[in-house]
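Researcher: Sequence recovery benchmark, item below. Answer with residues only.
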């Protein structure tokens, strides 16, 4: 009986070990498939165009940083300007989305008034409207009012299309906060503004971080509105600047990859700097939402 039990225990351990090895192999393969494109982009950016066309997957025979130097020094590519434009537009858009979304979401969750339900339904409908279906009317409005081709042009559509999801998440999160906190603060003499920004906002930090993550990537990678509303090359954002490397009949892929790595750097630095907060915010936002 003891041998049988020991045999079963040994077999179970062996089976668990095999399952663990298989699962680890799958996870390692998946991780490698995610990391390899970045590695391939990096060593391909060290090639010249001729070497890349001769062997797309091979390592660079003569590694060089000329692509990076050309991109940074050549004013025709406008990489520096596009980075500044994207950073400015993204930071301002995300900040205003968080500010307005938090105020509107809190009011819709806590204050009862005549058009509360109507505004809430309009916010929900805003998430259902395809962005590209509004490109033409937005272009006509901006062109008529002379608001296109300005440094602040993209702030309006970015904030408008970012507000619905922000209001939705904040509204759902505020609903989970006990009203006793606000009542206690009111009894202690706290004003509405003080309660809103010093008591409720810190509690909503996880969902605010989640919204900031979503909107940062959305604003940074947005292409359609930037293409339609901006004519001046000096106002182009990163996605538009990347089109400068594509010709009519051929493309310089090593330079494209070099430019992509340069323009990805702010987002990558931000991710590693706030990785813990990003993970906590996403998990808390999912649970609370």
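Model:
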């Amino acid at each position: 009986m003891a041998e049988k039990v020991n045999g079963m225990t040994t077999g179970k351990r062996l089976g668990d070990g095999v399952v663990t090895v298989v699962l680890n192999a799958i996870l390692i393969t998946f991780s490698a498939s995610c990391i390899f494109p970045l590695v391939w982009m990096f060593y391909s950016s060290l090639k010249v165009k001729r070497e890349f066309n001769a062997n797309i997957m091979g390592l660079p025979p003569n590694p060089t940083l000329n692509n990076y130097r050309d991109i940074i020094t050549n004013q025709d590519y406008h990489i520096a300007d596009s980075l500044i434009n994207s950073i400015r537009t993204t930071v301002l858009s995300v900040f205003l989305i968080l500010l307005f979304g938090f105020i509107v979401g809190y009011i819709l969750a806590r204050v009862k008034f005549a058009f509360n339900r109507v505004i809430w339904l309009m916010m929900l409908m805003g998430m259902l409207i395809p962005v590209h279906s509004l490109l033409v009317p937005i272009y006509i409005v901006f062109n008529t009012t002379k608001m296109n081709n300005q440094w602040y042009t993209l702030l309006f559509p970015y904030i408008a299309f970012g507000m619905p999801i922000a209001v939705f998440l904040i509204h759902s999160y505020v609903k989970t906060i006990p009203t006793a906190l606000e009542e206690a603060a009111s009894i202690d003499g706290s004003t509405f503004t003080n309660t809103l920004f010093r008591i409720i906002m810190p509690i909503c930090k996880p969902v605010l971080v989640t919204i900031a993550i979503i909107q940062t990537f959305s604003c940074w990678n947005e292409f359609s509105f930037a293409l339609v509303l901006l004519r001046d090359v000096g106002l182009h954002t990163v996605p538009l600047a990347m089109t400068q490397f594509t010709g009519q009949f051929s493309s310089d892929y090593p330079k494209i990859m070099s430019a992509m790595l340069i323009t990805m750097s702010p987002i990558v630095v931000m991710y590693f700097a706030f990785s813990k907060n990003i993970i906590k915010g996403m998990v808390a936002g999912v649970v609370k939402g």
